[in-house]
Specification:
The protein is of the alpha/beta class and 206 residues long. It is built from seven helices and eight strands; from the N terminus they run H-E-E-H-E-H-E-E-E-H-E-H-E-H-H.
Length: 206
């Protein structure tokens, strides 16, 4: 099965009413947090690793705190097992002043081709912070791979396109919300009242 089918089969895609980090009220939510066992996380790592092998060039897989951290480590393990060894790293929310000091945990960033992995792309606000951090840390190049592109609007255009134009960083995705919605609707998995909410939300936000 492809990644969108995997997310649906595991119950990661929820339709209802949810408040997002951006403050928007959404009729759907992608919850990678329920993939709470090694088997499911291993599968996610394989999907990400296979995409990276075919479409990206990188030396290091970076997971922004917090949801990106397990994805980065799982992807690094899967990639190293199937293809060749690859490094991983993640950031702390706050730098430590003792022991393993600093804000980066794992391999060091300077001179590396880095791919940021994360669960979803909504407006890109948190991704901007990760890109800025990696540039300060000396990354040679940066790309982003997310599990799901919510296909939302930014200030003037599609949020991903706006982000790419503003940062110069390419954004890849394994699945898109329109694809997930279409498959779930076809299989009778979305209540009629939610279909209307979805259409209204898409008109407003993409």
């Amino acid at each position: 099965m492809d990644f969108s089918e995997y997310l649906i089969s595991t119950g990661c895609v929820k339709f209802g009413r949810f408040e997002l980090k951006s403050g928007r009220l959404s009729p759907y939510f992608i919850n990678f947090g329920i993939l709470g066992d090694g088997e499911k996380l291993d599968a996610v790592g394989v999907y990400f690793a296979d995409y990276i092998k075919g479409k990206c060039k990188c030396d290091l897989i970076f997971g922004p705190a917090y949801k990106g951290i397990p994805i980065a480590i799982a992807t690094s393990i899967a990639y190293s097992g199937k293809y060749s060894p690859i490094e991983w790293a993640f950031d702390r929310k706050e730098a430590k002043s003792h022991g393993d000091v600093g804000i980066i945990v794992g391999s060091q960033i300077p001179g590396k081709r880095v791919i940021i992995v994360d669960d979803v792309f909504t407006t890109g606000g948190t991704k901007v912070n990760a890109v800025e951090l990696l540039r300060v840390q000396g990354a040679k190049s940066i790309e982003i791979l997310v599990g799901v592109d919510r296909e939302e609007k930014g200030e003037k255009e599609n949020a991903v396109e706006e982000f790419e134009n503003n940062t110069g960083v390419k954004v890849h995705s394994l699945a898109k919300i329109s694809e997930l919605y279409s498959k779930m609707k076809k299989n009778g998995m979305i209540p009629k009242e939610t279909e209307k909410l979805y259409e209204e939300y898409r008109k407003l936000y993409g």
